[in-house]
Amino acid sequence: MDLMKAMDIAASGMSAERARLNVISMNLANANTTRTASGGPYRRKTVIFETSPVTRSFEDELKVSMENNEVYGVKVNGITPVKGPFKRVYDPSHPDADKDGYVYLPNVNLVQEMVEMLNANRGYEANAAAIKTAKEMALRALDLAR
């Protein structure tokens, strides 16, 4: 595998982790949202990843089809709401309280979201390190050619 493909794969991973961080930030921002446009409390969302062929030139596509040697990166397949019960809190003074005085809060767990954020951050950093390493390898190869 050449170094540019390695960089493309790592770049696709960075893009996917950035999308994951955006969704985690949205979950954290709406951790106390009791009313959405659909009427109920905010529902936690998660990102679904899938493998995706790395974009190639025509020449690369031709070589790959002849060699049957696929190179895959990652892409975001979708952002889906997470099913699960809402938190039920007794607060009869809240405007969104039901007739019994209970308010339904989003199914967002702050600790879980922070762990997810650290995990996404580590994935992003790992892909950035892979790009840096590929760049250094390319520069050293150029130095050898001199």
Primary descriptors:
146 residues, 4 strands, 18% strand, two-stranded antiparallel sheet, alpha+beta, 3 helices
Sum this structure up briefly:
With 146 residues, the protein is an alpha+beta fold. The chain has helices spanning 3-29, 58-67, 110-145; strands at 45-53, 72-81, 87-90, 102-105.
Structure explained in plain terms:
It is a single chain. This protein has 146 residues and is an alpha+beta fold. The chain has one domain (3-145). Helices cover 50% and strands 18% of the residues. The protein has helices at residues 3-29, 58-67, 110-145; strands spanning 45-53, 72-81, 87-90, 102-105. The strands form two sheets. The chain has a two-stranded antiparallel sheet. Strands 3-4 form a two-stranded antiparallel sheet. The longest helix is centred in the C-terminal third of the chain and has 36 residues, at 110-145. It is elongated. The model has no long low-confidence stretch (mean pLDDT 88).
By DSSP (H or I, 4+ residues per run), the number of helices equals 3
- End-to-end separation in angstroms reads 23 Å
| Low-pLDDT residue spans | none
Structural class: alpha+beta
* Average pLDDT score: 88
Helix-strand string:
HEHEEEH
Strand order of the largest sheet: 1-2
Helix content: 40-55%
Sheet with the most strands, sense and barrel status: 2 strands, antiparallel
Number of strands: 4
General form: elongated
